[in-house]
Amino acid sequence: MPSSFWDAVNGVIGEADIVLEVVDARRIDETRNLEIEEKVRRAGKVLVYVFNKCDLASQAELEHKKKELQPSVFVSAKDYHGIKMLQERIMIEAKRLGLKTPKVGVLGYPNMGKSSLINALNGTGKAKTSAESGFTKGKQYIRAKKLLLIDTPGVIPYGENDEVKKAITGIDTRQKDPEAAVLKVMEEYPGVIESHYDAETDKDDLEIGLENIARKLNLLLKGGRADTRRTAERVLRDLREGKISL
Ligand SMILES: Nc1nc2c(ncn2[C@@H]2O[C@H](COP(=O)(O)OP(=O)(O)OP(=O)(O)O)[C@@H](O)[C@H]2O)c(=O)[nH]1
Ligand SMILES: [Mg+2]
């Protein structure tokens, strides 16, 4: 992992009183970063797990995880679900630390909704957000009523090569090979993607399934060949946005 990444993470952990680790509620284990958690603990800072995008996740799974990982709050920065609960949790921790205006560092992989969460917490659109991963470029401070929030860029550590996880969570939206990523998802969830688009599955050849999706979406190249690249990009976007239930 580039040392600049750890320099930035260590800097935020050093400054913050409380760290929010923002993970994707649909894939909690796969979007946690155990190294960051360990560093927060070693620095003696309070770690709060924030399961974001809970509007896209199953309630049963969340309840189970909530017991396992504490303190944790599940929220949706999109529809403000759980935001009040998170504010209360932060203030409880701050009180324990004897602080009136805690510094709250927000860490997590790209595209988890860190900037969106900051906006939900302070009720403004001060932190810029985007559907593309790697959007926030540098650390920024955002003052909320009783908090100082630190937004950070999400960075993908090396070794992050689980294509299915990346496809579903949008950790990396700048994939060089969207077709390969979608074919991996189709392999892991047989028939699910095809049937979402009402396209026929080909058990022996996933690429034919992808071509069938292209035809259903009318994404064709000159001469009528299926435009599988554009199709794959569209499938990845629909996955990220939770339009396809896996
Ligand atoms: N459905 C849903 N989408 C969300 C939620 N929170 C954020 N998003 C979407 O997720 C995408 C990423 O949001 P950002 O807030 O920019 O994510 P980030 O973690 O700051 O990303 P980087 O700056 O790239 O690290 C955007 O398209 C948001 O609209 C949520 O609670 N539910
Ligand atoms: Mg951001």
Question: How does this model look, in words?
Answer:
The protein folds into two domains: 149 residues, 3-Layer(aba) Sandwich (Rossmann fold); 66 residues, no CATH class. It starts with a helix and ends in a 6-residue tail after the last helix. The protein is of the alpha/beta class and 246 residues long. Helix 7 packs across helix 8, helix 8 packs across helix 11 and helix 10 packs across helix 11. It contains eleven helices and six strands. It has a six-stranded mixed β-sheet with strand order 3-2-1-4-6-5, sandwiched between helices. A hairpin with a 4-residue loop joins strand 5 and strand 6. Bound molecules: guanosine-5'-triphosphate and magnesium ion. Guanosine-5'-triphosphate binds next to helix 6.
Key attributes of the depicted protein:
binds guanosine-5'-triphosphate; binds magnesium ion; 2 domains; six-stranded mixed beta sheet; Rossmann fold; 246 residues; 11 helices; single chain; alpha/beta
